[in-house]
Amino acid sequence: MSTLSTRFLGHSFASPLMNASGVYCLDVTELKALESSASGSLITKSCTLEARSGNPEPRYIATPLGSINSMGLPNRGYQYYLDYAKSFDYQRKPLFMSVAGLSLADNLKMIAAIRDAALPAIVELNLSCPNVPGKPQIAYDFSAMDQMLAAVTREYTQPFGVKMPPYFDFAHFDEAAAILNRYPTVAFVTCINSIGNALVIDTETESVVIKPKDGFGGIGGDYVLPTALANVNAFYRRCPDKLVIGCGGVKTGEQVFQHLLAGASLVQVGTALQEEGEGIFARLNTELSIIMARKGYSSVESVRGKLKTL
Ligand code: HRO
To answer: Domains of the chain by range and CATH?
Structure first.
């Protein structure tokens, strides 16, 4: 029988599955549901220095092929998630904290507070929020990304990860990976955030379906699986000293398996978790175990990066 247990940055995980930041992780009630679920770990909502209520509603809509959102970084402020992380039972499963400051100075302040708390929580720095009006995605501005990582790695010397947006050109894969590779403490790369600034239109009402930004928002779900797999594999190939977390388009064990083949060490679930609820993790664990057993794989590690080319 194959095991789903795995190790990542020295932490033990009973399963490679976890939530994508933003889904089921806004407050302690949601986070507790993830703690009790069959997920291998969990991550908190991307936080800012101060609490934010986010963009006006409706700001998330599911469609037959996935979802569109422009939440606008609603969160309780970093101190809320830091308090949660201080009270967290790390024997149960590992915890990630997502940080998405609105400026370099904000990120440094939050990162310093997390550092000073000296917790086992693992930081994922979000460089790719597509939905704050007037704030472009940092990871689409390579010089801003380089400056951010230079400053953050001076302040925070523990291994941490970055949440990346999707890229669509080999030149951009190359340039982004080259920047990340300058920072050895950037220990993992999470690919991908939602594909930003898409537009879903309802034919009957002849209208956009979410209110913020005239209907523009980040898409997830079935729409993004091939783009997510491409980005996982592109960074897996280009960043041999880093780990990759796959995120995007996962709603069955088969899609988890594809992320592992592409090079993911852990796999996050966003839209499908939002739609199905935390019971999805037990289903995905079972489906993944069945596929691995059928194909003769005895561990998650043995699948990782085994993608064949023609
Ligand atoms: O809160 C959001 O609007 C949001 C964030 Cl921070 C993000 O990183 N990705 C996304 O799809 N939505």
So the answer is: 6-54+73-194+224-303 (3.20.20.70)
Using DSSP, how many helices (H) and how many strands (E) does the chain show?
10, 16
Write down the pLDDT at residue 246. 99
The question of whether 25 is a catalytic residue gets the answer: no
d(CA 8, CA 94): 10
Q: What tokens appear for 179 in the block?
A: 């920047």
- DSSP letter assigned to residue 23: S
AA identity, residue 188: F
Residue 2: predicted pLDDT: 74
C-beta of 48 in contact with ligand 1 (< 6 A): no
The response to whether residue 67 sits with its C-beta less than 6 Å from ligand 1 reads no
- pLDDT tens-digit map of 258-285: 999 999 999 999 999 999 999 999 999 9
**pTM value surpassing 0.85:** yes
Residue type, 182: R
- Residues 77-90: pLDDT tens digits? 999 999 999 999 99
Which pair of structure tokens corresponds to residue 249?
A: 């388009």
The best mutation among 44, 61, 71 to test binding of ligand 1, ranked by most ligand atoms within 8 Å of the C-beta, falls on 71
Query: Which stretches within the chain are classed as H helix?
Result: 28-36, 78-87, 104-117, 142-155, 170-181, 225-238, 253-262, 271-276, 280-294, 300-303
Q: How far is CA 262 from CA 56, 227, 304, in A?
A: 37, 12, 7
d(CA 133, CA 116): 31
